[in-house]
Design brief:
Number of helices: 4
Strand content: 25-35%
CATH topology of the largest domain: PH-domain like
Largest sheet: 4 strands, antiparallel
CATH class of the largest domain: Mainly Beta
Oligomer: single chain
Order of helices and strands: HEHHEEEEEEH
CATH architecture of the largest domain: Roll
Helix content: 40-55%
Radius of gyration: 19 Å
Length: 145
């Protein structure tokens, strides 16, 4: 899945090896949490329930757009990434400068990939193919050695 971000930032003869496939598990988790809290708050007071409805809608919309705005590409030469909606962070790092790569999976199944680049740590949440990205980075690093 190529988009304007990759096309505008690609180098000569650079090709995508793997692209992060993002899931919406965290969006569903936030929506489910606020739905449950709202149902229980109806027993306390209607205004409290209305507050939780508004907070739930806002939180769900923000999380949806955060996930939708995230991009992570591993190319044959570097990683290229962008995340954020208010504060946009872009990452461009040659494969050889990556010091470690790890993936995490939490209790509800949300996978994250953690990429360390010489003292900087980048965490990408909701990455369905986190293991594939880690494996591809490791393979590219082994080719460079």
């Amino acid at each position: 899945m190529k988009d304007d971000f990759f096309e505008n930032n690609k180098l000569n003869d650079e090709k995508i090896m793997v692209t992060a496939q993002l899931g919406y598990t965290s969006v569903y988790a936030i929506a489910a949490f606020f739905m449950m809290v709202t149902i229980f708050s109806f027993f306390i007071h209607i205004y409290i329930a209305m507050y939780f409805i508004a907070a739930g809608i806002l939180s769900t919309v923000v999380e949806y757009h955060r996930v939708k705005a995230t991009r992570l590409y591993v190319t044959n030469r570097r990683i290229l990434a962008k995340q954020g909606i208010i504060k946009i962070v872009t990452i461009e790092s040659p494969i050889k400068k990556i010091t470690s790569v790890a993936y995490q999976k939490d209790l509800i199944g949300i996978q994250s990939i953690v990429i360390n680049v010489y003292g900087s740590r980048y965490i990408f949440q909701n990455v369905i193919n986190a293991e594939d990205i880690k494996r591809e980075i490791m393979n590219l690093q082994n080719k460079e050695e």
